[in-house]
Amino acid sequence: MKTLLFLLTLLLSGHASATEIPDYKAKKIAAHTYVIHGPQEFPNEKNQGFMNNPGFVITNTGVVVIDPGSSLYVGKMVLRQIRKITDKPVSHVLNTHVHGDHWLGNQAFDEAFPKAVIMAHPEMIKAAKNGGAEHWQNLMQSMTKGATKGTKAIIPSKAVNDSAQFKTGGFTFAIFAPGKAHSGTDIMIHAVDDSVVFLGDNVTNKRMPGMQDASYRGNINASDVAIAIKARHYVPGHGPTGNVALVKSFKEYLSIIYTQAAIYYEEGLSDFEMKPKILKTLSKYTNWAFFDQEVGKHISLAVLEAEKAAFE
Ligand SMILES: [Zn+2]
Description:
With 312 residues, this protein is α/β, with parallel strands linked by helices. 38% of the residues lie in helices and 15% in strands. The protein has 8 helices and 12 strands. The chain has helices spanning 2-12, 72-83, 106-112, 122-143, 216-228, 244-266, 271-279, 291-310; strands at 27-30, 33-35, 55-58, 63-66, 90-94, 117-120, 158-159, 165-168, 171-176, 188-191, 196-198, 233-235. Strands 1-2-3-4-5-6-7 form a 7-stranded mixed β-sheet. Strands 8-9-10-11-12 form a 5-stranded mixed β-sheet, covered by helices on one side. A hairpin with a 2-residue loop joins strand 1 and strand 2 (33-35). It is globular, with a radius of gyration of 20 Å. The site of zinc ion has 6 residues, from loops.
């Protein structure tokens, strides 16, 4: 009991503020590239919505950050990990899409490096300005029971389109945005010199994607574009980093569902009738995080898209 009381006192008088989140280690995945793999969880009070994979590339003169997380405090945590490796300034921040778990951490970088250029797809900027920022701030706050409070949405100011390229500190970054895929606001970033592709949520690994804003056909196409880059390393929006096999496996998941949904729709089957048939063909994916919660929704969305496609 005494120990418990002692621990409790320690906890209450601890140095860490209530909003600070613990360090997650940055993993070196290529010569100059690091990824902090977020937990496979939905936003909660403890993780402050941290569940994505912030990445950074250290160039000769600065640091390029990709998707700095879901809140001011997650962004600060990402910056702490960068500071363990380099004292170079952050020159650029890229946001892969409008979902707030990927970009609300911008604030930490905007405060520390006011000159850093924050970039995203023009549709991401538009969506964020048209209510997306507020929607995600509110969603994060309610899901984390207020833990992300104080986070301001710093919307990217520079738009980058498909096939844009920029050079910084002797490194080249190429942007791929082949139409609506995961959210209609997506970019993928190829860090050419390290042969790394940051996929955003166009591809997730061992973790179900959120398909609510996605297009199956567009997302399958984006996977093909990523595969064709022939990079050595692929960083998914969620789940472990790996090689091209993870992109192929994800594409196969979408293809299995969409192809069958289209066929069964033509045959006149209802959503309810085709679900058990499609489920039987997904045994390779049942160990993915959130499979049971999400798979039914994924099939329903595929049916809706197949239905729409039939009238095109
Ligand atoms: Zn997303």
